Amino acid sequence: MDESLAKELFQKYKDGTLTEEEMALLESWYIAHGKSSNSTITTNEIEKNLDQVWESLPVNKDEKASNNSTVKPLLKWLAVAASIAIVSTIGVNFFFKQKNEPNIKTVAIVHDAAPGDNRAKLTLANGQNIMLHEAGNGKLAQQGQTAVIKTKQGEIVYEFDMQEAGSRAQTVTYNTISTPKAGQYQVKLPDGTRVWLNAASSIHFPTVFPTTERVVEIAGEAYFEVAKVTKNSKRVPFKVKAGNQVVEVLGTRFNVNSYADEAIIQTTLVEGSIKLGLAGKENQGVLLRPGEQALLTRDLRKSADIAAGSFKVKQVDTKTVIAWKEGYFRFNNVGLPELMRQLSRWYDMEVVYEGPIKEYEFVGQIERNTNLSKVLQILELGDVHFRIENKKIVVTN
User: Fold this and answer.
1) Last residue of a domain, one of 289, 323, 357
2) pTM of this prediction?
3) Tell me, what CATH number does 203's domain have?
4) Distances (CA, A) of 32 to 92, 336, 350
5) What are the tens digits of pLDDT across the range 192-241?
6) Same-domain check for residues 309 and 340
């Protein structure tokens, strides 16, 4: 797109006639060319126009109150324009090209898919299953000395029951909370630790933690806000087992992505400090600082750059990693297969590729409460195409 068209689109915004596709076009141009040394449109001119756009939007009020820093316009404009902000970094010219075509392709839809919601299954120590999204509020079960309660907010809370503790000997029982595809859930563990489970995930934990250490096991993806617990003035460690990885915590916030269909286990520290090790070799692990992510391969064939049995540590944007917890997908140079795996879990859909997988990278944000068809329509602006057939997304060439 040339700069004369960019100036024309800026003017169309001011006139109130800018379409969603034109906003995507302008934003893509800005990212790819707007701040290049060859641009005759000055940086101040660009920023002034983009700031005018953002300042005029009602959603800016809440964000401005909590954070005065400038948010990348990509994540501003499209999130407001269509509740979706996804731009293919290789599709900058595609928007302009498609803008001049009389017939814009749309997703071939036989069946649409609604987004996921709060749903999970609680498996008690005796094997009984309770569908948490169907259960009423209040006490759901008694597990030894611990009462299982569903709050009005839909969270599951484990509370120590003093009456039960005085009437029977202490016993250790284990519960499991698991989410299906298209599901997520929150739980407050017996020690006060809060856990958010993403789709197709689970956590296995004791209903009463021992005084020496707290250990839970997860599969899939979970975000933790670990409560600090002390015994005789010493902190009681908190450990998370994910595959053959062990995360040791004293009190912190972190995210673990350990889906079986991902080649790498990703552990991201948001706040505090954690130590990562391998099962049976915890003393040979690595320490993470806030903003760091540790990668541990589970499939060497797909992760040749990471040595077996060792961690690779890198800096990441933690807001991108935990965006799912806040109700968003957020993509930062994410390839098409990884993006489609995320959509597959959240919409409970199978993904099939017709022909070779093209090398796409996506940047942007999408609300998780958006129907699948709308998501795919926006993705198609980046020159990737889809069909929806029953419970299947077909990626076409």
Assistant:
1) 323
2) 0.74
3) 2.60.120.1440
4) 7, 20, 33
5) 999 999 999 999 999 999 989 999 999 999 999 999 999 888 899 999 99
6) no
